[in-house]
Amino acid sequence: MARLITAAVVPSVVSMSLPRVLGAALPLLTAAALTACGPAVTGAPAPAPIRADHAAATLWTQYGATPTTSATDVASLGRSVLWLDTEGRVWTAEPAPAGPWQPTAVVGLPSGIVDIDGIERSDGEFTAAAVDSGGGVWMWGRITGADSAGPYDTVVTTPKRIEGVSGAHKVAVGPGVAFAVTAAGTVVSWGTSTDYELLGRTAPADVPQPPQELAGPTGVIDVAAGFPAVYALTREGTVWGWGSNNYSLLAPGDALTPDEPVLLPQLSGIVAIDAEDFTAYAVTGRGTVLAWGDGASGALSTRAVERAPIDAPVTVAGVDDAVEVAAGASGAMAVGRDGSVHVWGAYAVPDGKGGVRDNDAGTAVRLDWISGTVLVAVPPRQVQESYAFLVRP
């Protein structure tokens, strides 16, 4: 949350297995290859992916580089980070300013994991998920859903295979809900519905629901499981949304939106998307970042705008070559085509020493303490928790 995809026009058979919160790997495509794959998004040239494969990268945190040099995917679980290595194994560790780096393997997962995601919950717990090479989804931590044994809302330390999910190649975790993007380009949801209807389907409130495919979106390549709205990005660059229209996240004004996904006509030519804490972000094919929703704490990259509806988003100043965006606590991060990272929000600028410096203006700031090409950047969903970066020299 993950959750992110560098995506423009790509065929559905392309493997996409990096986080929601930030990063799906794409093969390096030339302009000719993109043309061969299908029609380009009108007026939105696709950015050149900076990541061409699943080769190893060094894991960095807010304290700098770690000894881990074989990471291919990463997520933040609050005080700890979760990552996937080149052999399809999943690890976790808690960054610290001193002492040994002590990775711990997640026990109970099958071999050949291809995607991971996770979030820290407001109650201090976490939810983590992984996709195996056969398309199955596994979850641990606080998990919610229903299967043949009935509804469940519990904490598990050993990963549980989610009954009723198959053909997945990407997973996105939200507050009390989870989503799988299938190889067929559909979205499957499960978890607990609330007044915000994050499941994307009508369901009784506070009753855990089993996995079910959502009506509407096709050709989906990524899901941004934000709060209180969820977004699905298609390979054509269109975006679907569902949940609550608080802060005009899904429609202009105070219009109500259906419980099921609706196409958002305000967004087109989009290549990456993410959302969190009443704010959403989208990367256009030209490399600019759009921000809308709640502007508290500089989340819209400026203190001058307190609220921006989806039909009048703020364009993040100083960022014009983005390929990825990741939403976090009161702000976001954008990874540039050149491997640079910009961060915005009043309290969301890590200093490379384990601290977070204030950014009173909320504007985008380039992180200059990371040495190398950043492939993926993951901010925490709570202020002053763990940041994570995948970096190549």
Automatic annotation (TrEMBL):
Q: Which UniProt keywords apply?
A: Signal
* One GO CC term on file: cytoplasm
- Please give the superkingdom of this protein's source: Bacteria
Return the Pfam families for the record.
Answer: RCC1_2
Query: Which GO molecular function terms does the record list?
Result: guanyl-nucleotide exchange factor activity
Q: Signal peptide span per the entry?
A: 1-36
Q: What is this protein called?
A: Alpha-tubulin suppressor
